[in-house]
Structure formats: C-alpha cells, structure tokens
Amino acid sequence: MIRFDRVAKRYANGHVGLHELSVHVRRGEFLFVTGHSGAGKSTMMRLLLAMERPTAGKLLLAGQDLGKIRNSQIPFLRRQIGVVFQNHQLLFDRSVFENVALPLHILGLSREEINARVSLALERVSLRDKAMQPPSDLSTGQQQRVGIARAIVHQPALLLADEPTGNLDPKLAAEIMAVFEDINRLGTTVIIASHDLALIARMRHRMLTLQRGRLIADGEAV
Amino acid sequence: MSAQLTPDQPGKRIGATERHRVDSPPVEATEARVQLQAWLNSHRASFLDSAWRIVRQPFGSFFTCLVIAVALSLPMGLTLLLNNLNQLGASWQQAAQISVFFELKTTDRQAQALLADLQSHEGIAEVQWISREQALQDFSSFSGLGQVLQELPDNPLPSSLLITPLQIDPDGLQELVHSLENMPHVQQVQLDLQWVERLAAMLRLGERFIFALTLVLIAALLLVVGNTIRLHIENRRTEIEVIKLVGGTDGYVRRPFLYMGALYGVGGGCLAWLLLVWGFAWLNQSVTELASLYASDFRLAGVSLDDGFSLLIGAVLLGYIGAWLAVARHLRELLPS
Q1: Does A122 touch chain B if contact means CB atoms closer than 8 Å?
Q2: Which residues on chain A are in Cβ contact (under 8 Å) with B331?
Q3: pLDDT attached to residue B14
Q4: Up-side HSE of residue B157: CA atoms within 13 Å toward CB?
Q5: Which of A52, A90, A217, B134 lies at a C-alpha separation of 20 to 30 Å from A41?
Q6: What is the pLDDT of residue A82?
Q7: Which branch of life, at top level (chain A) (predicted)?
Q8: pLDDT 10s digits, B111-169
Q9: What is d(CA B24, CA B31) in angstroms, rounded to the nearest whole number?
C-alpha cells in the first residue's frame, strides 16, 4: 500500500529529514515509527500527507507517486487518510458532533448520512453521549478520542497519528492505543509515530526505528 | 469500518474512489446526480454558515455594511444629482433659442415663406414666427412702456423667428447661425450660448469628479471587505488548517468567505439604497419648495428600481471580489502545519 523507495528529504536550510528510506507497508498493517526528536518521524508523516515532497527517491501511496502528485489532487488524496494530532486540533467553538462531521461536510454528504456516520464513529470511541457537548467540557483523553473519531469518520484507508499519546498519562495512552487497534482490526492501515517505547513494546506490532533520518531497525517491537 | 482504498491502482483519482465507495452508485448518471447533490449540499452549508457568522456579530456586521453603504451611496447619489442637473439643463436648453430679426420692410408673406423653409430644416426642433404686431404687444406688456409705444407713429419692431435648435452643439449652432444670416430679408441673428456652455462644462467636470471619486471609493470598499474577510480568516486559522488536512480543496476553504463577502455586499447595497431613497426624499422637500418660488414643478428624480438593482448587484460583486482578493492572498499563507 505504501512504498518508500530510497526516499530522501533535505530542507532548504541543509537539515536532512530522511536519508534514503526504503520501507514497504502492507495494507491493513499496524506500524509504529519511533525515534528521538528530529529522527524523521514527523517528516515521514508529512510526506505521506503530501504536505511536503521528497527531494529524492520515490514514495508511492496506493500506486500514486506522491513526489509527482498534482497540487489539485492532494485534497482528494487526503480524503483517503485520517490524521490524529498530538494536540487534537479540535475546533472549540463547535460541538463534538460538528468536529467529527467536518470531513463529511467536505465530502458533501447528506445530513442523514452525516448523522449516521458521526454516530458510528463516536460509538467506536465510546463518546456517543458527548456528541452535543463542546470539546472544552471533555477531558484530555476524551478530546483525543474526538480527534480519532474525526480521523476515522470518513472511513479512511490509512490512519496516521503523530504522537497521539504524547499528552496523556499511561492509562489513557493505553486506552487510546486500544482504540487504534480496534480500527486496525477493521482493515484500516495504521501508522503511529511515537517515542513511547514502553507502550509500543506492550503492543507487539511492527516498529520502524529512525535515527537522524536513517532507518536503523525494522521489526516487531520487543 | 473498513479500509477501502484498493492498493496499487496507478493513476486512479483517489477522491473519485472515495466518493464511489461512499455512495456506491452503480450507474454514471446516478454518480453525477450524487456529486451534484454533494456540491449543492456543500454550497448550502457554506452559505448558511457565512450568514450565521454575520448574524452572530450584528454590530460588527452592521458597521461593515454601513461603511460599504456610504462608499457606494456617495458616488451613486452624486451621479443621480448630476442626472437631475442634466435633465434640468435639458429643459433650460429651450432658452438657448436663436432669434432671427427681419428687415422692417419684410412682409408677413415673405417671413412666413422663410418660416416654412426652416420648419423642414434638420437642425431645428421648432420655429415660431412673431409678427410685428405680436412683438409690439409683447414688448408693451413686458416692458411696462405700453403708453409710450402707443404714441409712436409707426411700429419700430421687426417681425422675427424664434428658433429652438435640436442640440446645443456650439459648432453646429454657429453653422446654423451662419446659414440663417445668409437668408434673404434677415437683418440680425442673435444667439446666446455662453451660460449653456458653462453649465455643460460644469456638468462634464462633475462627471469626471464623480468618476474619480467612484474609483477611489471602490478601492476603499475592496480594502474594507478584504480586511474584514482577513480578520475572519485569522479567526478561523485552525479550522482552515484542519480542513486542508482532512481533504478540503482550496475552493471549499474559499467558499464561505466568498459568500460572506457577497453577503456583506447585499447588506451594504440594501443600506446604500435606503440611504439614497431617504436622502433624496429629504432633499426633495427643499428642492420643490425652491422650484415653486420659480413657478416650476421640478423635483429630483430619486433612485429608480433599475438603479437600485444595479447598485445591489454592484455591491454584491464588489463584496465578492474583495473577499476573493483577501482569500487568494491569505490562503497561500495558511498551509497545514
């Protein structure tokens, strides 16, 4: 589904985000990307979201070369991807329901369809009873669940999460990870960037370890 | 919940795949209908959202509309005043008549023959013959010298023709005067156009002033709308970034702001229309009073329905363009982070 073929990303200031990274991610896989700050985790995510383009190599997502994708096609690519942010990126002037419904409004779905899908997504993150509340009334963990619901509501093929448990205590972090595993079991490819090695080790999924933009390990977390 | 993206389908437009999957339309016609419906849904949502945001800030929105209204009503009001002056001037043009005085020895028959010739002249709207007797009678009544004139042995006044030209064109009039002077039995031709020319020059100056003022105010209006939209964009920065990350196109991001600009235009246009209607009604009280002192029933023509709708459409377009310029400039700066 995703193929990094000697992908490099060098920034204008000389910093190297990725150095000839070659990785293949299969459909339905659950993958952790780990490493210290500046290792290249976020660069990988940004490349997959077509927020940046590789400076060398080839990056394919579902056969589409993200190095050559036209700007006008990027929004349509992103509709296939769900994104979860460390800081949730919720809109606090809207209800939980409206936050989750945002990607569906972009798709132009009918009100009935939106209601059905948002309810389902909130059900999956156990927040259906909070639908009409503003995000500010929720705990940090619940806010992150809203972010996840928004990321999965349009049934993406790929779910990206950049440090999704960075602000959470271990118990909440484990709960959030359980939600990601549920989503993955339904067929969605999940890629999580995290530096929480203890948490990753408990989950026993494939883990890529990056260091200064280079892949130094690829295998099951232990 | 299931992953539907078929892996490794080169060249396939992913958005199309998504829509196909979401709605499962088996027939192309159904797909087109669904996409049209989605497009309409999206527009309706953007429109309602923009309207709601404007209504939610009544004071701020009102003052933005008021600034637009003032910027629009000034040139529009001055143009309408100028049109009224033009119409008034046109009625005064009748005073720009040419008087053709015949020699004293000219008979009525000769004068009427010339009258008949001139009635078919292409540059002349109307010709009126004033006989020597009529001239004496008019002069007696207007001058108050009736008694003195009656004691004169002969009527000293010649017969004359009063000619109303079709247009107040200085060159054409000079040509007409020249041809009248060369006609038989004509003693003198009088034409006084100076004040008409002055009025025309003042009106032309007024038109230029209003044109320049309109340009300046349109620029100011675009800036006002642009700045208002810029503030809305700043307030929704996070939302825009999220929308872009979850697949919103630039068109989708731009749409509510364009509706907002157009709605500000509607508000400003309606207010400008109201201001003009009220302003002209207020002015008309004094104008009709002044006109009545000159035995005239002149009154200012206000904002016609056509002018009102033109004003409204212009306001909507300017609001839309102002918003477009602001969004085009600021969207480039708002990349997802």
Answers
A1: no
A2: none
A3: 34
A4: 17
A5: A90
A6: 92
A7: Bacteria
A8: 888 888 888 888 788 888 898 888 888 888 777 776 777 777 788 888 999 888 877 67
A9: 8
* pLDDT tens digits, one per residue of B196-208: 777 778 888 888 9
* Pairwise CB contact (< 8 Å): A75 & B252: yes
Greatest mean pLDDT among B188-192, B224-228, B294-298: B224-228
Long-range contact set of residues A62-66: C-beta below 8 Å, sequence gap at least 24 = A62/A1, A62/A157, A62/B5, A62/B6, A62/B7, A62/B8, A62/B9, A62/B12, A62/B14, A63/B7, A63/B8, A63/B9, A63/B10, A63/B11, A63/B12, A64/B10, A64/B11, A64/B12, A64/B14
What is the interface pTM, i.e. ipTM, of the complex?
0.87
Q: Kindly list the domain boundaries of chain A, sorted by start residue.
A: 27-52+72-220
How far is it, in rounded angstroms, from Cα B319 to Cα B223?
10
| Residue B79 Cα, gap to closest chain A Cα (Å) | 45
Q: Which of B196, B190, B187, B186 is nearest to B177 (CA)?
A: B190
- Both tokens assigned to B157: 């006044």
Structural domains of chain B sorted by starting position, each given as residue range(s) with its CATH number in brackets: 43-90+198-334 (no CATH), 97-191 (3.30.70.3040)
> Would you state the pLDDT for residue B93?
58
Helix residue spans in chain A (DSSP H)? 41-48, 74-78, 96-107, 111-124, 140-152, 170-185, 197-203
Which pTM does this prediction carry?
0.71
